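Lecture notes, unit on protein representations.

Consider one protein chain, 141 amino acids long.
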Amino acid sequence: MTSPSPGPSTPEAGEGGAEVRPPAAGAWELPSAADIEKYELMLGGGAAERALALVEKRFALEVEDQYQRRLDAEHRRRLDMINVRFRIVGVLVGSSGFAGCLWIAKDFVDRGATTQAAGLLGGMAAALSAIFLGTRSRTPR
């Protein structure tokens, strides 16, 4: 049977007195050749391949993360452009509606129906103030 392998913090006496450095959590650098040899002795064969596989996996995850960030930035840019277009259309529709109401009120005044023109202008003023006040309360800060 195989003998139990020693723990990573207790090197065998024949290996020398140097401790094996644990890999840095955020660095993901390749270990030195001396560290690989000590890992091979402590953990058995294949330590170098496992270390390389971990570094390659971390690199692949970082590349995928950068790609996803680029896609998210492009998506946010498109959403911003759509928001600008909707705002422009809203201003155009609102101003044309405002101009239409003024035109109808002027027509009422020209025909001598001043009470209807006053009602139309009062309703338009109330509607516009409700739109502006309602939009301000919904706008995220």
